[in-house]
Design brief:
It is a single chain. Helix content is 3%, strand content 18%. Among the domains are: 44-230, Leucine-rich repeat, LRR (right-handed beta-alpha superhelix); 262-385 and 394-398, Ribonuclease Inhibitor (Leucine-rich repeat, LRR (right-handed beta-alpha superhelix)), CATH 3.80.10. It is mostly beta strands. The protein is built from 3 helices and 37 strands. Bound molecules: 2-acetamido-2-deoxy-beta-D-glucopyranose (6 copies). Residues 491-492, 515-516, 540 line the site of one 2-acetamido-2-deoxy-beta-D-glucopyranose. The site of one 2-acetamido-2-deoxy-beta-D-glucopyranose has 3 residues, from loops. Its main location: secreted. Forms a ternary complex with IGF1 and IGFBP3.
Length: 610
């Protein structure tokens, strides 16, 4: 049998405001009322809530334009919100009787100074928020009497240096945020008082270097954020004692050199972000010892080449980001040892040559991004062994020809991005092994015709994007295997005819665009077995509105949602109120008596003799 507690909402009493003399506040006088006990008294211009069950009093004085601290704060207060006021300074012993206080929020309160003894008496304080103020200096031992403090936020202030003994007494602290100040240097032993620290944020400062001993006492640290500083290099032994560290952020610095073995000892590290730095080269021993690393981000550096065995210790790596560097070629066994890797990004480098064997050993890679390079040619069998690959990005890569053995053995591939190349030839049998392919993007290339064998074997293909090529012709049986295809975009080509038998096999087709071609006629017969068609885009052709288009006219008038006259959408971003119209005009080019009219506007009489 369960005990019957009163419902939770009756436990929470919102108490009436009781004005007390002293602190000036611009808010109106609240009606004076005597509360049951002294302990439940709520300071003037604040709101309070009292939880009967836990006997916790919470006082909310956020954004009340307070210029001084409210007096007569009941000593049983559990949480006190003073953020968003104009307090300017915290006097000594401001909270001296509040030994039950657990949470104190003083953020965004224009604080420029805090007396050394300001926090005396806060024996139970657990969370202290001092971020987003104008603090430049705090005296040593400011937190000496708040020994239970677990989290301390000092970020977004104006500190350019801090005292070595500032954190004395904080042996229970596990979170310290010093980010977004102007710290230029840290005292050697500043963190030595913090044996239980789990997370340290130093991001957004101006630190140009790190001393050897600086982190040596932080043996419990799990996360260290040093991003967006002015660090130029990583020396040996800086992180050697951080055996429990799991995440290290060094991104957005000026790092151009990392000492070999700089990360030795970091056997728990799972995440290392070195992106947006100035690294030019990596050595065989750079990442030695990182036996637990899962994510390595090296994008947006100036790395020019990758030596074999650079990553050999990283047997658990799952993500390797190398995009936006200056890598020129990939040689054999560059990624040796990365048997667990799932994501490899190499986009926006200067890769011209990839040797066969470059990707050997990447048994588990699922996503590979090579876009934005200038590959010119891909050797046969270059992707051999990548049996788990399901997304391959080769857009914007200067490819002009696809050869039969390039994609062979990629039997799990689902998405192949080849758009924005100069591909004019896809040799026979080049795509036929891609049985699982769902999406093939070939838009913005130079294909002039599609051979009848080109898509044989692609029985699962759903999206086929062929817009902005130079297609003049599509052979009869080209789409015969594509029974699952539901999106076909042939817009912006030079098609003059589209035989009705070409479209007929596409029994799952839901979207068809043949906009911006040179078609004179279109047979609705090819659509008749297509009950699922949802959108048909026909604008921008040279429609010859004779008897052959009578059926299309009928179809368009019958199904205005399938052949819309226009679709209206809203632009994204700031001008989001300006509607954009995408038209689907069926303008007749000829014969002369109807030229310029939309097929749907022509009267029935015009087709009377058909
Ligand atoms: C605080 O002052 C601002 C500006 O004078 C005013 O707009 C706002 O209403 C005041 N807030 C309170 C809670 O009195
Ligand atoms: C703290 O409590 C004592 C005794 O109850 C009282 O005399 C003193 O004024 C209080 N101090 C503050 C800062 O409220
Ligand atoms: C691949 O890189 C290109 C170019 O930077 C980017 O636009 C695209 O989103 C990337 N794709 C993936 C899956 O990472
Ligand atoms: C069709 O061509 C016109 C003019 O060249 C262009 O503005 C429009 O974007 C093209 N339509 C599509 C769907 O690309
Ligand atoms: C209508 O015009 C098309 C395109 O010019 C032509 O192929 C077709 O034979 C014509 N149909 C009839 C019934 O005249
Ligand atoms: C399509 O028709 C609409 C309205 O009939 C017209 O405003 C628009 O300019 C036409 N668009 C094209 C590309 O012909």
């Amino acid at each position: 049998f369960c005990l019957n507690f009163p419902p939770a909402d009756t436990l929470l009493l919102l108490l009436v405001l009781v004005p007390t003399a002293g602190c000036q506040s611009p808010s109106k006088d609240a009606p004076k009322e005597q509360s049951d006990t002294e302990l439940l008294k709520c300071p003037s211009s604040c709101a309070c809530s009292y939880d009967d069950y836990s006997e916790e009093l919470n006082i909310f004085c956020s954004s009340r334009n307070l210029t001084c601290f409210p007096e007569d704060i009941p000593s049983n207060v559990k949480s006190l919100w003073l953020d968003g006021n104009n307090l300017f300074s915290v006097p000594a012993a401001a909270f001296s009787n509040l030994s039950n206080l657990d949470f104190l929020n003083l953020q965004s309160s224009q604080l420029a100074s805090i007396e050394q003894h300001a926090f005396h008496g806060l024996k139970g304080l657990y969370h202290l928020h001092l971020e987003r103020n104008r603090l430049k200096h705090l005296a040593p031992n400011t937190f000496l009497h708040t020994q239970n403090l677990a989290t301390l936020s000092l970020n977004n202030n104006l500190f350019s240096k801090i005292e070595e003994d500032l954190f004395a007494g904080l042996s229970n602290l596990w979170y310290l945020n010093l980010g977004w100040n102007s710290l230029v240097v840290l005292p050697d032993k500043v963190f030595h008082h913090l044996p239980n620290l789990r997370e340290l944020v130093l991001a957004g400062n101006k630190l140009p270097y790190l001393q050897h001993q600086i982190f040596c006492s932080l043996s419990e640290l799990k996360e260290l954020d040093l991003s967006r500083n002015l660090l130029k290099g990583i020396k040996l032994n800086i992180f050697v004692k951080l055996q429990k560290l799991q995440k290290l952020y060094l991104n957005h610095n000026l790092i151009n050199a990392i000492a070999p073995r700089a990360f030795m000892g970091m056997k728990s590290l799972r995440w290392l972000d070195l992106s947006h730095n100035r690294l030019i080269s990596l050595f065989e021993e750079t990442f030695l010892g990182l036996l637990s690393l899962h994510v390595l981000r090296l994008s947006s550096n100036s790395i020019t080449s990758l030596r074999p065995r650079t990553f050999k210790d990283l047997q658990f790596l799952e993500e390797l980001q190398l995009g936006h560097n200056r890598i020129r070629s990939l040689t054999e066994r560059t990624f040796d040892g990365l048997g667990q890797l799932e994501v490899l990004t190499l986009n926006n480098n200067q890769i011209q040559e990839i040797r066969v064997g470059a990707f050997l050993g990447l048994f588990n890679v699922a996503v590979m991004n090579l876009s934005g390079n200038c590959l010119k040619a891909l050797p046969d069998y270059v992707f051999k062994g990548l049996t788990k690959l399901h997304s391959l990005h080769l857009e914007n890569s200067c490819l002009s020809r696809i050869r039969p053995q390039t994609f062979s053995s990629l039997s799990c591939l689902r998405r192949l991005s080849l758009q924005h190349n100069t591909i004019s030839v896809i040799e026979d049998q080049s795509l036929n092994e891609l049985h699982d392919l769902l999406e093939l993007d070939l838009k913005h290339n130079r294909l002039t015709h599609l051979s009848s064998d080109m898509f044989v074997g692609l029985n699962n293909l759903e999206y086929l994007l062929l817009s902005s090529n130079q297609l003049l012709e599509i052979s009869h049986n080209t789409f015969n295997s594509l029974q699952r295809l539901f999106w076909l975009d042939l817009s912006n080509n030079h098609l003059e005819t589209l035989d009705k038998n070409i479209i007929t096999p596409l029994t799952s087709l839901r979207y068809l665009s043949i906009r911006n071609n040179s078609l004179e006629t279109f047979s609705v017969d090819s659509l008749s077995p297509l009950p699922v068609l949802e959108q048909l885009w026909l604008e921008g052709n040279k429609w010859h509105c004779n008897c052959s288009l009578k059926e299309l006219r009928h179809f368009s008038l019958q199904r205005p949602t399938v052949v819309p006259r226009f679709v209206q959408s809203l632009t994204e971003g700031e001008d989001s109120n300006i509607p954009v119209y995408v038209y689907n005009n069926l303008t007749c080019l000829s014969p002369p008596d109807v030229a310029g009219l939309d097929l749907r506007e022509i009267s029935e009489d015009h087709f009377a003799d058909c």
